[in-house]
Structures are given as structure tokens and as C-alpha cells.
């Protein structure tokens, strides 16, 4: 056996990850269910082929890897992962390690972790972000599983990861499903970040009547400031690109109905299950669901009329839209980190929040300049709501007025800004010392004698003087 590690699943992501590992000097055995794909992969590998050990059978693949073996799975999330683990189990030694690098639901990773503890071999779940290019040249890697698994392969994962000023964007975040939970929240934040950008694009397009190219240059400008991020950068590029067939802006050709593979939805579900607010992310998931109902939306437009367009160009300055995005972004990260913190408590996972902000600074889809400040703020006090860290509190003081202006403009003119609205509601609720839940408690006690606490006395289980029935 010569290979230091193995990889199963030579689709785009798996193939690129294997080439990345090879390029970093590690010899790697590769296997794909269909041999054709392995042949095609090897034919295109160029000089990296000398670090690659292609195998035609699972048995040959396993023989090619040094013991204790480490095997990365890059197969579609779900049943394919279980099937692959079942196929490998009888062929591996108990001290070997299977690493699921797909977008797994972390509950599945928790289950597989328990099964591995009972039946072997060892198991680890890693979230890998950065799309095809990240996989090939440096992704962000969020690892969960036993500490000794990280000891075995951490150096390889760090070597292949993206770097931020020399620091690897890869870390071990806790046991079992910790890595996949963090990847899921990453994707939930990705959904909200993308949706909020799409919403200000909508204000510029439908409200201010700006062309794609004009909008593109606004994004380009923003990318030089506080919003500097991969998603703002590519939004500018998308807006500035013309369709080669028609010469029209690509954005006017792309159908307005968004797909999703599920990770954003899982984040919203986890927020609800863990009882921690992820409302901006929920709004972004709901907006994708609504976008898919294209026929229904067209019917709605016919019945209610299109939202009034053609606002005065001076109705809102693009700098106000920029500030609104800053405020919305801080809220959605506060919610995302809050969710991770809650999961850490629930499962007893380490979840070093500053470390998570650090490994998101490069390689992943949500990489942005602001994450550096988030890492510092979380290092001061990981358990505090990010919104209350002095740096971000100051930013919110400067920008929540702009968020309010954009949401109000949207509301008055029928321009939908659901994620921004949701972010504003969260901000307003979280700055309200006295909420309206006293009314909810009164109602609950009235119809179900559920009891309430009093503002003037200690203890629980007080009731109002209302008669039953
Ligand atoms: C990444 C991405 C990647 C992918 C997701 C989300 O971090 O590299 O998040 O994992 O884009 O599958 O895709 P959907 O928008 O299809 O849910």
C-alpha cells in the first residue's frame, strides 16, 4: 500500500478534491462506482496522475491505502452514504476512518457516529464549502468527529484548505455532527446573504429603474467597502454579464425561480427545533419557495396588479441600500452563530465560535471582510449575541435607520424585501426590553390555566382573576 488517503466518488467535487490532495503532495487512491469515470478522471489528471492510484474494485482501492486507512466519501448526501459505509465496513479494520465530505444532514452524521462507535470503523463528518473551485484550489473545511480522527487527517485537511493570511481555513469543531451542523448553518447564512442582495437588486431594478449594468457597477463599488465579500463580487459579475446569444443582460434572461437542495431549509428547521431565532434565514428559504410558484405569482399579478415601479431616482440613495445590507448581514450572522451556540449546548460540542468565523474568512461561499471583525468580536465573548459586541453594536447604530428606510420603502411601494424585513423585526424585538408576550401569557392562562410569572413577585404558576368557561 502506498496511498496516504483514499477518496470515493469522482464527481466534480470529489474529482477536484482528489486533485487538490494530490497537488499538495499526498498520494491518494481513487475509486468510482462506474469505472469509466475513473478512466476519464485519470486521463485529465496530467502530471498529478503520479500521485493518484486509481482502483477498479473496492478491494483493490482498500489495499492501495496505508493502514490505518482514511477514506473520504464524496457521494450524494443521504442513502448513498449509508450504502457506501455498509459496503466498506466488512472490508475495513476497526481503526480505519471513513470521512463523509458531502452536505450531510447533521442528524445523519450523529447517527453514523453512533453506528461507527458500535460497529466500527471510525467515522468523521466534514463540511466542505467553496463549490468546484474551492474543492480544487482550497475549500473551507468544517470538521466534526472524534479528536483522534482529526489527529490522523487534520494535517492533510489543513494543507488542502484555503488560507487566510497563511492560516488554514480548516478546523475540528466538535464531536459527531458538529462539522455538518456548522456547514448547514453556513449554507443558511448563504441563503440569507444571497436573498438580501437579491432584495436590494430588486429595489434598484423595479424601484429605481436601473439597468443591470448600472446595478453591476453599484455592486462593484460596494465590494471595495465594508460589504467586501465573494457574494457581492459575483453579484456584480452576474449583473455585468451579457447573454452571448442575444446580447441582453444575463439577468434579464435567467428565469426568476430559485432551486435549493435543502441545507438552507435544514437551518431554518434547526432554528425552530432548538428554539433559537433564525428568522432572516427562514425568510430566505420561504422566499425561494415562493419564487418557485411562478404561475401562482403571475396570477397574483393579474389579480392585484403589479407593484408600482418607477419611483423617483432620488427615492433612495444606493448608499442607503448598502447600509441596509450591512445591518441585515449583521443580524443574519448573529442568528447563525446563535444557532451554533445553542446546538453546542444541546450536544455538548466544543464549537469554538471565533474559530468558525476564522475558517469562513476564505475558501467558502460566505467569505467576507466582515468575518475578520466577527472573529475578534466572538473571541471577546462567544456567548454574547454578535449584535451586542461593541464593534457590531456601533455598526448597527449607524445602519439600522437605513434598513428601516429600505423596508418602509418596500412596504409602501409593494416591493418585497422579506429577509431584510425579517432582519429588521429581529433587531426591533431584540432591542425591546418590554415585549408584548405578557398578552400571550394572559391568553394562555385564560384559556388553559397555563400560569404566568408576575413582574412584582417571585415564583411561577400565578393565575388571573378570570372565571373558567
Ligand atoms: C458551498 C455551497 C454548496 C452548495 C449548496 C447550496 O458551501 O460550497 O453552499 O454546498 O451551493 O449545495 O446549494 P442550494 O442552493 O442548491 O441549496
Automatic annotation (TrEMBL):
One Pfam family it belongs to: NAD_binding_2
Pathway connected to this protein: Carbohydrate degradation; pentose phosphate pathway; D-ribulose 5-phosphate from D-glucose 6-phosphate (oxidative stage): step 3/3
An annotated Gene Ontology molecular function: phosphogluconate dehydrogenase (decarboxylating) activity
Sorted UniProt keywords: Gluconate utilization, NADP, Oxidoreductase, Pentose shunt
6-phosphogluconate dehydrogenase C-terminal domain residues: 179-467
Broad class of enzyme this protein falls into: oxidoreductase
Function: Catalyzes the oxidative decarboxylation of 6-phosphogluconate to ribulose 5-phosphate and CO(2), with concomitant reduction of NADP to NADPH.
Subunit structure: Homodimer.
UniProt family annotation: Belongs to the 6-phosphogluconate dehydrogenase family.
Protein name: 6-phosphogluconate dehydrogenase, decarboxylating
Amino acid at each position: 500500500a502506498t496511498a496516504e488517503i483514499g477518496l470515493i466518488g469522482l464527481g466534480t467535487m470529489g474529482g477536484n478534491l482528489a486533485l487538490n490532495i494530490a497537488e499538495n503532495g499526498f498520494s491518494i487512491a481513487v475509486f468510482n462506482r462506474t469505472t469509466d469515470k475513473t478512466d476519464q478522471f485519470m486521463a485529465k489528471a496530467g502530471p498529478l496522475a503520479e500521485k493518484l492510484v486509481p482502483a477498479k474494485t473496492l478491494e483493490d482501492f482498500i489495499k492501495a491505502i496505508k493502514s490505518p486507512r482514511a477514506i473520504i466519501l464524496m457521494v450524494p448526501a443521504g442513502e448513498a452514504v449509508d450504502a457506501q459505509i455498509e459496503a466498506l465496513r466488512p472490508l475495513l479494520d476497526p481503526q480505519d476512518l471513513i470521512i463523509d465530505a458531502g452536505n450531510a444532514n447533521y442528524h445523519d452524521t450523529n447517527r453514523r457516529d453512533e453506528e461507527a462507535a458500535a460497529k466500527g470503523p471510525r467515522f468523521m463528518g466534514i463540511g466542505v464549502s467553496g463549490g468546484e473551485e474551492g474543492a480544487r484550489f482550497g475549500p473551507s473545511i468544517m470538521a466534526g468527529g472524534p479528536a483522534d480522527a482529526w489527529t490522523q487527517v487534520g494535517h492533510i485537511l489543513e494543507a488542502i484548505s484555503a488560507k487566510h493570511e497563511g492560516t488554514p481555513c480548516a478546523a475540528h469543531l466538535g464531536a459527531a455532527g458538529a462539522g455538518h451542523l456548522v456547514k448547514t448553518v453556513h449554507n443558511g447564512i448563504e441563503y440569507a446573504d444571497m436573498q438580501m442582495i437579491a432584495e436590494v437588486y430588486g429595489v434598484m431594478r423595479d424601484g429605481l429603474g436601473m439597468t443591470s449594468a448600472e446595478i453591476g457597477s453599484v455592486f462593484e463599488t460596494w465590494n471595495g467597502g465594508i460589504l467586501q465579500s465573494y457574494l457581492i463580487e459575483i453579484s456584480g459579475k452576474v449583473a455585468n454579464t451579457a447573454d452571448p446569444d442575444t446580447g441582453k443582460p444575463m439577468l434579464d434572461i435567467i428565469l426568476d425561480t430559485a432551486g435549493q437542495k435543502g441545507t438552507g431549509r435544514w437551518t431554518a428547521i434547526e432554528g425552530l427545533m432548538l428554539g433559537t431565532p433564525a428568522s432572516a434565514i427562514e425568510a430566505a428559504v420561504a422566499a425561494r419557495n415562493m419564487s418557485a410558484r411562478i404561475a401562482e405569482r403571475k396570477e397574483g399579478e393579474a389579480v392585484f396588479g403589479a407593484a408600482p415601479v418607477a419611483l423617483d431616482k432620488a427615492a433612495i440613495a444606493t448608499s442607503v441600500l448598502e447600509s441596509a445590507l450591512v445591518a441585515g448581514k449583521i443580524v443574519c450572522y448573529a442568528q447563525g452563530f446563535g444557532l451554533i451556540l445553542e446546538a453546542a449546548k444541546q450536544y455538548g460540542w466544543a464549537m469554538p465560535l471565533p474559530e468558525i468565523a476564522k475558517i469562513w474568512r476564505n475558501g467558502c461561499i460566505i467569505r467576507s471582510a466582515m468575518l475578520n471583525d466577527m472573529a475578534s468580536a466572538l473571541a471577546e465573548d462567544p456567548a454574547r449575541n454578535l449584535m451586542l459586541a461593541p464593534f457590531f453594536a456601533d455598526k448597527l447604530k449607524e445602519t439600522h435607520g437605513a434598513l428601516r428606510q429600505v423596508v418602509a420603502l418596500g412596504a409602501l411601494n409593494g416591493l418585497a424585501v422579506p429577509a431584510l424585513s425579517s432582519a429588521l423585526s429581529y433587531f426591533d424585538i431584540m432591542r425591546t426590553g418590554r415585549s408584548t408576550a405578557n398578552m400571550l401569557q394572559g391568553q394562555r392562562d385564560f384559556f388553559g390555566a397555563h400560569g404566568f410569572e408576575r413582574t412584582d413577585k417571585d415564583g411561577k404558576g400565578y393565575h388571573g382573576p378570570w372565571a373558567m368557561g
